[in-house]
From TrEMBL:
<comment type="similarity">
    <text>Belongs to the gluconokinase GntK/GntV family.</text>
</comment>
<keyword id="KW-0547">Nucleotide-binding</keyword>
<keyword id="KW-0067">ATP-binding</keyword>
<protein>
    <recommendedName>
        <fullName>Gluconokinase</fullName>
        <ecNumber>2.7.1.12</ecNumber>
    </recommendedName>
</protein>
<dbReference type="GO" id="GO:0005737">
    <property type="term" value="C:cytoplasm"/>
</dbReference>
<keyword id="KW-0808">Transferase</keyword>
<comment type="pathway">
    <text>Carbohydrate acid metabolism; D-gluconate degradation.</text>
</comment>
<keyword id="KW-0418">Kinase</keyword>
<dbReference type="InterPro" id="IPR027417">
    <property type="entry name" value="P-loop_NTPase"/>
</dbReference>
<dbReference type="GO" id="GO:0005524">
    <property type="term" value="F:ATP binding"/>
</dbReference>
<dbReference type="GO" id="GO:0046316">
    <property type="term" value="F:gluconokinase activity"/>
</dbReference>
<dbReference type="InterPro" id="IPR006001">
    <property type="entry name" value="Therm_gnt_kin"/>
</dbReference>
<dbReference type="GO" id="GO:0005975">
    <property type="term" value="P:carbohydrate metabolic process"/>
</dbReference>
Amino acid sequence: MKGQARRVLRHYAPYQNNLQSCFPVHDLRWSVWASPGHQAILTPSEMIYVIMGVSGCGKTTLGAYLSHKLGWPLHEGDDFHPRENVEKMARGEPLTDQDRLPWLLKLHDVIQRERSSGGDAIMVCSALRRLYRQVLLFGSEALTYSSDTAGLHMCSLPGVWFLFLYGTYDLIHARMVARRGHFMQPGLLRSQFDVLEPPAEEENALLLDIRRSTDDICREIQEHLRQLS
Ligand SMILES: Nc1ncnc2c1ncn2[C@@H]1O[C@H](COP(=O)(O)OP(=O)(O)OP(=O)(O)O)[C@@H](O)[C@H]1O
Ligand SMILES: O=C(O)[C@H](O)[C@@H](O)[C@H](O)[C@H](O)CO
């Protein structure tokens, strides 16, 4: 068992009898689930960074860079879109919630697999709306809660952090126009901003300004990782 996991178990042992129901401990990289009369169960979940933001904000660029720096596997969300979605975007039509849902569920499965195998990983996914992020974390369960309940209780999972790349429309549009050979048209950027719901703090989000270089952004993420360890 890892040193950190041992420390976590020691810390929570005295409180175990007072716990009324199963609950996740949110601020730890290791997931600990405890319930009355049961030993805390340690599940193997290391860190998963989901790089999010509108099209053209630099997700793929940062994902590749970070994956190389950290030696973590990279899951590129675009590779999981069904062909119809890619064709739709290439025609200049924005995706709807219905188009995105099966894609988000597939990405949820990837996150689940990584969490249960205890590996670190990076995922690139626009994750524009809060509900999309909840589907990434909780799968179809996120759809069965009312928005109030979901807003209160289903906003984060231990060991999964959203890295939100933010910047102005003009900066991102200029980068998209300069980019070559990508199916996503700059004309779709406005619709991406229309749908975007920036992540709130309780969603385990780190906000990263895209005016900085990829290397600078990467350093901040490495610092974040050091602080959590
Ligand atoms: N920090 C940065 N500084 C300057 N240019 C950048 C930076 N990050 C990315 N770029 C450039 O911006 C463009 C968009 O980046 P990228 O393709 O990584 O965005 P994306 O969010 O993955 O887009 P999409 O969601 O459409 O696939 C690319 O041409 C890339 O080289
Ligand atoms: O949610 C969405 O609308 C899509 O994921 C888009 O963000 C594209 O996949 C991406 O931007 C193109 O690479």
